[in-house]
Specification:
Blueprint: H1 7-17, E1 38-39, E2 51-52, E3 91-93, E4 106-115, H2 122-133, E5 145-149, E6 157-162, H3 164-172, E7 184-186, E8 189-193, H4 194-199, H5 208-223
Parallel strand pairs: 2-3, 4-5, 4-6, 6-8
Antiparallel strand pairs: 1-7, 3-4, 7-8
């Protein structure tokens, strides 16, 4: 294995790059031809029409900032909420909405949906995902992609957070084996396994909030046409499009597609 960045330093870097206190959408940075389904890595065929959460005021959307360097979860996302093995397969749409993030390219509108029966705030998850997609080291970095969170109306893709059993059914319908453990992208649906959203991964030594950034960057990467790659060399940051949960192969864990200097982090393609 290559030299790993100490967890303490990684937390400091993450705290500078992505504050855990999620603020108003107006304070965020900035403003698909879909791949075949990929495990670990949009609407699900036959999925029930989603419900909707009630909108809330801008003031209510503003949680207090977390201390710098905090590795705890974002507000509304306890680190150990219950993880039911299965759920009804119906979803509630977060009624959060924001301005476009990113400076150019194709604007993709997306919704965030949480499976019914999960003790997880859809609104808080939506703001967290919006913050990840607005990050300067995220997919907006190269100026080719922009994103907008919407709570109603047309959308280009959905991010569904679901129980392991529901993930297996959605992904399995496309011929993907998630085994109750991993995420996938199917058509225009990003499917996030609640188990990974809450617990992170043993292969990832950063805070769980940073691992959520990896989930979103990896799966949305598939939505914008990126395929799997592997480690680019011992001691280097693992690409966001690497299946890091399967092992780092000498790289060190990393959540972001781009380095701080704007370089795209990649490696050899995986067939």
């Amino acid at each position: 294995m290559g030299k790993r960045v100490p967890a303490r330093r990684r937390r400091r870097l993450y705290a500078r790059a992505l504050p855990l206190g999620l603020g108003l959408t107006a304070l965020l940075v900035g403003g698909v031809a879909a791949l075949a389904g990929r495990p670990e890595s949009g609407p699900t065929p036959g999925a029930a029409a989603p419900g909707e959460e009630k909108p809330r005021s801008a003031a209510a959307r503003t949680p207090p900032p977390s201390p710098a360097g905090s590795a705890g979860p974002s507000p509304g996302t306890p680190s150990r909420i219950p993880i039911p093995p299965d759920g009804p397969g119906t979803f509630t749409t977060a009624r959060s909405a924001g301005s476009p993030v990113g400076s150019g390219g194709t604007l993709r509108r997306y919704k965030v949906q949480v499976e019914r029966g999960i003790d997880l705030s859809g609104r808080e998850a939506a703001v967290e995902i919006e913050t990840i997609l607005a990050h300067p080291r995220g997919w907006t970095s190269e100026g080719r992609h922009s994103f907008q969170l919407v709570g109603s109306g047309p959308s280009d893709f959905e991010v569904k957070i679901a129980t392991p059993g529901t993930v297996d059914r959605i992904c399995g319908a496309a011929g993907l084996r998630t085994r109750g453990e991993v995420n996938c992208t199917v058509g225009r649906t990003v499917v996030v396994n609640l188990k990974r959203w809450v617990l992170g991964s043993d292969q990832f030594d950063g805070p769980v909030t940073e691992y959520r950034a990896l989930i979103i960057n990896h799966e949305v990467g598939h939505r914008i046409g990126r395929g799997h790659v592997t480690c680019g060399g011992a001691g280097k940051p693992a690409p966001a499009m690497m299946q890091q949960i399967k092992g780092l192969r000498g790289c060190h864990a990393n959540a972001w597609p781009y380095a701080e200097d704007g370089t795209y982090i990649t490696g050899p393609a995986v067939p």
